[in-house]
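pasting T9SS type A sorting domain-containing protein for the record, 710 residues
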Amino acid sequence: MLMAQNNPMEYKRWNTLNINRVATTFDNVGMLCNGNNQNYNLAREPSFEFPQGSGKQYGTCIGVVFGAPAGQHPDVVGGTNPENLAYLDGTMDEGPADFWNEEHFAPYPEFVNPNAASISTDPESWPASWPEALPNYYFMDVNDQTGVQNPNLPVVPILRDSVTGWPGFGPNGEQLSDQEMFSVMYGWGGTDQIGVGNAQTRWLRTQLIMRSMAWKGSLYENFIVWIFVIRNVTNQPITDAAMGVHIDFGHLPAFIQGIGYDADRHYYDPKLQLAYSWDDDGFEESPVGGTLGPDEIGWAGVVALEMPGPTGKVQTYDAAHFWQGQTSRSGSGGAPEMYYKWNLRNQDDPQDSDGDGVDDDFNENGIPDDQEGGPGYYVGSGADGLQIIGSGQFTLQPGQMDTLIFATVFGASEKELKTTAQRAINLYQSNWEIVEAPPAPVVEAFADDRKVTLVWSTYSEEDVQFEGYKIYRSLDQGQTWGTESFADFEGGIHYVPMAQYDLVNGVKGFYKTLPEYAWFYLGDDEWVPNRSIVQADTVKGFHINGKLQGFEEGDSVNVYVDRDVVNGLAYWYYVAAYDSGNAIIGPLENSSASNPAEPNNTVIVTAYAPKAKENLDNVRVVPNPYIVSEIWEAGYKEHVIQFVGLPYEATIRIFNSSGELVRTIEHRDQTGIARWDLKNKFSQLAAPGVYFYYIESGIGEKTGKFIVIL
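structre below
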């Protein structure tokens, strides 16, 4: 056991989950994102970004809460409680105006890495060695340096994956998903008591084990599963406890630069146990400039998979405002006793028509909205709506544990969001048994003058259900994958590939067995990729303008040449292997990988003209005019204009229409491409207008102009 510090939050660490289309920065003390509602400078990105790389983020604060009424045995509580009030420990940190007693869980030091919260995909984020069992001790207060051991608690071993060494969620410690996180915490008085001589705070003596699981694959790419196990580490029971999820999504949150406050709608689907939200008017400022319409604003939610307590189901649902009516039965419950009564237990809520703990009457006329045509949702003005789903009451005996499992789910539409929620439910009910497409191929890309050559492995074809390949291309950093798209019957968006290669086996046309997959095109029995073999570090019969990195002599490879490219633009490609489906599930294909820098099925490549050797006649600006919303926009934080066809060495000076020098770029690059980020020498974004450039090099000079439209 390590020694604790006076400020246990010195052990708080952050990291990012980014294996699929959802990316979020989380900490090891129970907060799943940080949009920091009151100090935007403290926000951490990505904060539930969906799709990953789009800049559209939806997370303000998602955390968990655990509470119990007053009258607990003195051994199970800490702090001071002279007024005999209820207890409420939350992991959220939204600022003092929202919840007045925050961050009531701190990490056990022995589980902490010096630099980052632990994730399975990065062993450098793990502690020096994993403890063999859960801690059987707790700290009395902020000044406790050693902790109190409880010898009466059973030893709970921490099992690890026999291959990776990761402490997975499987019955024998197996890692069940493609990316996971793990942390162990203890209850304490929270950050509000640090530095306070006579802190008036109270808490329950518990232990909290936190996990997450995220998968690749088209069925699982829109959600992350979270597991929280609450444990009583004392010798007395914690009675009539309840546990829930604190949900604060924004569409879009105001911490994103250029985004203002706007109202959001908050819904609850009791059949799915899904609390979800969307923008109120279908109009928002865009992180890349301009505006977003209703088809461009995502839906976000939390679906409960397993709740603590005897029923295992959601027993309470509350929708409230971040600060309006905060100290009343309709508000967000700033103090622990308020939050416990009015939010977690949802007692006496004017929007609960029948007192069953579930808000259902959002026009407050005493009749459930679904019975009289009411709105069916709560409107949180100023993007300040909150949702809380809670368990029923339960008693936690000494050493006993109970489990909360939920998924943060996302979709481009309400229909896709609910499909995503159902897929998370199905995965939970199948005991985390996933259904996979054939293994994704590994792709390498090689650029030339107005040409890109893709080379990929053939081991996908060893899958017994393998049917073919689809090749997709993107000009917006993987946000879209083609010029033609369509929606399936469940609201999912798909793209028409730029090329498709289908085994010649009579399996062709649209899939017919399961009606819900009738949109999937299996191909037309045409197999035309160029098949070749690796010789040394190149491909026999092809000029690939580079050296292969991940293939060996004699390997069989497929080759595709794209000749419809513009020099200077960054293209993303991915190659998806797909199968033919069966009577249980329809055809599946690989998704694009989230990190093209790693060896996988997704690559980034920029075609370029040969660098100038004799003159600057072929130098040009791409794009011209530059329009921020066009397809070549690289990402929401990145505005780039490129000078192509340059010699190896050149100096570029950019002037505005008044003749003032805006920026000087010193170019030294074999590709013949120089990039300008549209910022002046003071790092300020350039204004729209006409700009002039003057290029000096050893082979000559050139002038020209271009237009910027922001």
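Confidence is low (pLDDT under 50) at residues 1-5, 631-637.
The helical segments are 336-344, 369-372, 414-429.
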